[in-house]
Amino acid sequence: MSLLFINNTGLASVSSVNRVLPPPVHKVPAPDIIALSEINPAHSICLTFDDGPDPLYTPKILDVLADHQAKATFFVLGKAAEQFPHLVEQILQAGHSIGNHTYSHRHPWGMSSEQAKQEVVQTNLVINTIAGITPRWFRPPFGRLRTAMRVQAHSEQMTTVLWSRSIIDWGFCGTKVGIARRLDQIKSGDIVLMHDGRPGHNHPDITYQCLPGFLRSLADKCLVARNLDEVIYRAD
Ligand SMILES: [Zn+2]
C-alpha cells in the first residue's frame, strides 16, 4: 500500500472511508498520456465521457455500457458531481473510472493562477467527499494545458490525460452520421473524447443513440473498451 494514491488534502474534512486504490501495473511514461498504443498493445480502447454527470444522459449511457460489458472513464465536473452525487457513485459501482475535469468548466486561460488551481482542488474535494477516492486522471476543459492546473493535478498524484481521437459530438459537426463515422474510425490504443454532459453545448443525445451500434462492432474489430484504471493499473 502506498500513500502515493491517497489524497492528503481532503481526508480530514470528509466522513466517507478512503478506499485504497490498486498499485500500478504499467508505469506512465510521461505526465500526459496522448495515446495508449505504446503501452497497451492488447487491443484496448479507452472511451472517455466529459462534462457530466448529467441526470438524463449519464444513466442512459451507463445502461448501454453495461449491456455491452464495456468500461469507460468519466471526467466529471465538480459542480455537476456536487449536484448529482448519486451518479458519481453509480459510475464507480459499475466499474468505470472517474476523472477530474475541473469544477466549473471555465476556460483554463480565463482566470487567475489561483482560481485555476482551485478548479482542480475543489473538484477532488467533491469527489473525495462523495466517493472516498482521489481521481488518478485529470483533463482540462477544451484540452487547454494551463500550467497552474497541471502542477496542481500533478501534486495530487493525477496524470493529465488528453485524447487521441474525438467523435466531435458538439456543434454543427455533431450529427448522427458524423459521429457514427468517427466512431467507426476508432483504432486500438485510442483514447476517445465523448460527452455525457452539458447538453446545451454538446450532443450527448446523439452520442447515446450511436453508442449501441458502435459497441456491438467492437468484437468484430477485436477491440475491448476498458477504463483508464484497467489499462494503466492492475485491477486487483
Ligand atoms: Zn469538457
From TrEMBL:
- InterPro entries for this protein: Glyco_hydro/deAcase_b/a-brl, NODB_dom, Polysacc_deacetylase_ArnD
Q: Which organism is it from?
A: Cellvibrio fibrivorans
Q: Which SUPFAM superfamilies match?
A: Glycoside hydrolase/deacetylase
Matching PANTHER family: GLYCOSYL TRANSFERASE-RELATED (PTHR10587)
Protein's name according to its UniProt entry:
Peptidoglycan/xylan/chitin deacetylase (PgdA/CDA1 family)
Q: Enumerate the Pfam families for this protein.
A: Polysacc_deac_1
Q: Where is the signal peptide?
A: none
Please give the coiled-coil regions recorded for this protein: none
Q: Where does the NodB homology domain start and stop, copy by copy?
A: 43-231
Read off the PROSITE patterns from this record: NODB (PS51677)
